Amino acid sequence: MKTRKKLALFSAMAFAGLGCLGCAEDTVETPTQETQAVDTPVARTDGATGDAGMIASAHRRATEAGIEILELGGNAFDAAVAVASTLTVVEPMNSNIFGGYGTLIIYDAERGELRYLDNNGRFPKATNSDVFREASDLQDMMRTAKAVSTPGNLHGFEALWKEHGSMAWAELWEAAIFHADEGVGVTAPLGRAIAGAWGHFSDRAKEIYGAGGEPFGEGDWLGQHELAASMRTVAADGAAALYGGSIGEAVIAEIERRDGFLAMADLVEHEAEWFEPISIDYRGYEVVTAGAPSNSFAALVAAGIMTRYDTAALGSNTTAYLHRFAEATKHAFWARLKYAGGPEVNPPPFDMLLSEGYWQEQADALDEDRASGFDPPGPTSTEDADTTHFVVADRWGNVVSATITLGQGFGSAVLVEEAGIWLNNSMAYSTYEPKGNPMDATPGNRKHSSKSPTIIMQNGRPWAAIGSPGGHTIPQTVAQLAINLIDFEMDAQTAVDTPRVAFAEPDALLVDERVSERVRAELEAMGHNVRPTRGIGLPHVLRIEYDADGRPARFVGAADSNGVGTAVGLDAETAR
After folding, report:
1. E strands within 270-408?
2. CATH no. for residue 322?
3. What is the total count of domains within the chain?
4. Distance CA 262, CA 146 (A)
5. Catalytic one among 387, 431, 533, 566?
6. What is the pLDDT of residues 538-566, one digit of tens each?
7. Cα angle at 322 between 386 and 104, to 5 degrees?
8. Is residue 370 in some structural domain?
9. Is residue 408 part of a domain?
10. 240, part of any domain
């Protein structure tokens, strides 16, 4: 295929502008400081449309990698592998198809089937969560090999491709390999993440992500040759290279050197797991997200409680609306603390939690004039955006909504130097008190998280796909996106750009600084501990419209204007 040549030509044009149109397809100019800045993406803020597919992700290069797969005749599931692998290269702090974990909701149009793919893995068999309970500084412990849990992304994306893909596996990795080898421009978010984690980097990591002992910043050029080599191995040998093969051996050697819990047996015994998603009827739309072992149900509970109000009449981002939403979300998160757990350990009572009767009980208990407190025991939750979300839809109506992460920015800050792979720190996001609770880091148990990729159905077909990074705030962002699209009838771009709120532990209400000072003051007067912030989450959204015969006819996508993400639509005349 001609993918490699096409990528080379496109990248050369990006480096040098139109003057490079005469360059040979096989060549790429060495980037200068001036041309490096050209490759640094900016957010697309006007939305995007297409009639044969849509992708929205956190980086232009990743979106383009997926679009190229769709152009070549691949489906949404093929494109998702290309997007995820390329994000590993261009957004290394937020996700890693090797060392990370994630959650996917997919819709297979041919089967008419919604599925939940859990890439979160299980805690290593040697896990001893006492080291986290006894740690004098949990933040420091998060940046060690002990925080590394079994990575599940690679097995998950391979399973997605094996069961639903259509193209050759190796083709899906070409864009990622190209960008890892040839390099990419450092974005402002990546530059900030490198600087923030620099003190935890090994000497080799500093050589890759910096120069002259200083971290790379925006506009610098990042090449990742060891990562490219690992990707070539996986493109040829599949996920087995990590789960027992040569890459796995390199991972375990690094973990053993740093005294972590992960062992080869954890990798060898790992497998991708499919589960049934859960859903609610939200004003005639079916809102679908991940069930157990994910904790995504908090998004559905919060949205369900809001059905007890005439949300459209309350108005977008009014004091009355934001207060009710914040309180509904607190009720949802108390339920999450009480009922969260894997299907084998503490299966949540979804029949009760997702029922109108339960929502009405919570709404009746909600004080419409005063804020309630929320200060649970144990470590406070993260509110950062060190995760990534992307959405993909193809001409046949297949849809992928995927949230993947390393945990914190650059995860554990453990770089497998031989392989160029960052490892997660998901162990540190457990709830350690009391010991043995369903969300404790128990050997062999599944991890739990807030990742809430979501597909919204109407008349039995995908109507929208939504999701966001943001740690503890993810279910809150997802619920607000659904409300924006359905209750307030916003277009995709307006839905993602409208300011949001999110409560944060212990007992604070994050409010986007674009919300009016009057509303913020009124919320404060109601007892909310208001903390103004610049944006909450970085969601990506797509919408699908259908023709009279029920075939996808128009796709609309959007990326949050606070980030550097991009939505790109595919037109039928450019697709095979």
Report:
1. 273-275, 278-282, 285-289, 387-394, 399-405
2. 1.10.246.130
3. 2
4. 8
5. 387
6. 999 999 999 999 999 999 999 999 999 99
7. 35
8. yes
9. no
10. no
Give the angle 220-221-224 at the CA atoms, nearest 5°: 135
**Could you tell me the pTM of the whole model?**
0.92
Residue-wise over 33-55: b if at least 16 C-beta within 10 A, else e? eebbebbbbebbeebbbbbbbbb
In a domain? residue 135: no
Name the DSSP letter for residue 314. Answer: H
Residue 387 among the catalytic residues: yes
Query: What is the per-residue pLDDT across 297-326, written as a single tens digit (0 to 9) for each?
Result: 999 999 999 999 999 999 999 999 999 999
Token representation of residue 363: 């709404």
Q: Are 423 and 416 in contact (CB under 8 A)?
A: yes
Closest alpha carbon to 159 in 208, 118, 214, 107 = 118
Q: Is the pLDDT of residue 14 over 70?
A: no
Residues in the chain: 576
Q: How far apart are CA 261 and CA 3, in angstroms?
A: 40
Output the pLDDT for position 349.
94
Whole-angstrom distance, CA of residue 495 vs CA of residue 44: 14
Mean pLDDT, to the nearest integer, of 4-31? 34
Rg (C-alpha) for the chain, rounded Å, is 22
Identify the H or E element spanning 160.
Answer: helix 153-164
3-state secondary structure 233-247: HHHHHCHHHCCCCHH
Structural domain boundaries enclosing 11: 1-30
Tabulate helix, strand, coil % of the chain (nearest 5).
40, 20, 40
Closest CA to 570 of 50, 48, 123, 2: 50
Identify whether the C-beta of residue 354 lies closer than 8 Å to the C-beta of residue 304.
yes
